[in-house]
Amino acid sequence: MKQSEVRHFFNFRPEIERFRRMLADVTVLRLAFIAMLFLMLAAIGFAWLENDGKPWHQALADGLWWALVTVATVGYGDKYPVTPAGKILGMMVISGGVVIMTVFTATMASLMVERSIREGKGLETVLTNNHLVLCGINRNLNRVLDELVQNSSADEVVLVNNMDEEDFAVLKENLADKLELRFVKGDYSRETILRRAGIMQASSVIILADTSADTATGSLVDDRTILTTLTIKDLKPKIRICAEIVDEEKIDHVRRAGADEIVVQGGMSGFLLARGTSSPELPMVIKTLSDSGSDVRLDSKAFPSDMIGISFEQAMTRFLVEQSAVLVGIFRNEKGFSLESMLADGSAIDNFIRDKLKESKENFLTEGKPTSKLKMNPGRDYIIKKDDKAIIIAGR
């Protein structure tokens, strides 16, 4: 069993929260009040009818114990009525207890079934943690889910779209042993829908270019992606978002909205078509590396600590020998420069600018936006640094 599966197995929070919500249901509260009232009346009746000279508080305690044991049908036999009136009370308590337990059990079962049906229809609030929220639906949905399964990128995925509940049921059944799927139905650009999807507890978000609507054009689809990105970043600024768009001209807009990664739908088509005639091997290579069903994959991973400081050539050899993987590039996140570093000479104009920026209450001085750099084949003498990640071709 993988570590992620063990962590998911011992995660009782969602079940505890569901049970708490069921207990907070008005019908359950009414039944609980009726049951408590019934027990108290039975205890008082037993203490009154079967009191053999004991102090009243002790007789009442014995009566409560007898009532609990009788209603629960445990039947210890240490306390029991001996008077005719007490025996009549006992028969009434037994009959009433059976009715109350039956109604309570049926109510809880009904609530559980109703909640399960609502979950299948996408009407329930998601209660999990560290899940991935997948917004939108298009022809790439199944492929994205397959990749998540193959790369173990997420244990739980919450789909947010307007698909039919029957389609979701089929999809969930097909991935039952591979991925924990949940569903929230609605417009994923709305804050209320995103909150129902547990966006505040999510670890990352994928936004598909949703072309499911008949009237959806490329511009409208991308505008919805931008609005969704803005809404998510407003709710949870540090969450990682990967967005798919239709129009390449909208890349800058989506990036300014806060998307961390942007994929253009069909962005490789021109390259593959052009190379398909002159170099037919290249489209085959791209297809193999991106196909979740192939026996090799393009992947990224952190360098082991003992590789920090060695050359790219030495790292290539070690990856090939130790992991049967081919190191093809380096990826690194670098902190962006801050305005403080530009205003470091202490001149009067620099001090004036610094003071005005501080008055704005924004972190322009200390916060630089991080930048990502990809270096394919950076050179044999390139030295591996602490924040570098390895881009490798490895077996599945």
| CATH domain class of one domain | Alpha Beta
- Assess the beta-strand content as a share of residues: 15-25%
Going across the biggest sheet, name each strand in turn. Answer: 3-2-1-4-5-6
* Order of helical and strand elements: HHHHHEHEHEHEHEHEHHEHEHHEE
Report the span from N to C terminus.
Answer: 18 Å
Rg over C-alpha atoms, rounded to the nearest angstrom: 32 Å
The largest β sheet comes out as: 6 strands, parallel
- Ranges with pLDDT <50 over ≥5 residues? 1-10
The helix count comes to: 15
Mean pLDDT: 79
Quick one: how many beta strands?
A: 10
Question: Which second-level CATH architecture of one domain applies?
Answer: 3-Layer(aba) Sandwich
Would you identify the CATH H-level superfamily of one domain?
NAD(P)-binding Rossmann-like Domain
Broad shape = elongated
Feature tags:
396 residues, alpha/beta, Helix Hairpins, Rossmann fold, 4-stranded antiparallel beta sheet, 10 strands, 15% strand, elongated, disordered N terminus
Quick structural summary:
This protein is an alpha/beta fold and 396 residues long.
Your description of this structure?
By secondary structure, this protein is α/β, with parallel strands linked by helices. Among the domains are: 15-120, Helix Hairpins (Orthogonal Bundle), CATH 1.10.287; 124-267, NAD(P)-binding Rossmann-like Domain (Rossmann fold, 3-Layer(aba) Sandwich), CATH 3.40.50.720. It is 49% helix and 15% strand. It has helices at residues 3-9, 13-23, 26-49, 56-71, 84-120, 141-150, 165-174, 191-196, 218-235, 251-257, 269-278, 281-290, 312-323, 339-342, 348-359, and strands spanning 132-135, 156-161, 180-185, 204-207, 240-245, 261-264, 296-302, 326-334, 371-376, 388-395. The strands form two sheets. Strands 3-2-1-4-5-6 form a six-stranded parallel beta sheet. A four-stranded antiparallel beta sheet has the order 7-10-8-9. Helix 3 packs across helix 4 and helix 3 (26-49) runs antiparallel to helix 5 (84-120). Residues 1-10 have low confidence and may be disordered.
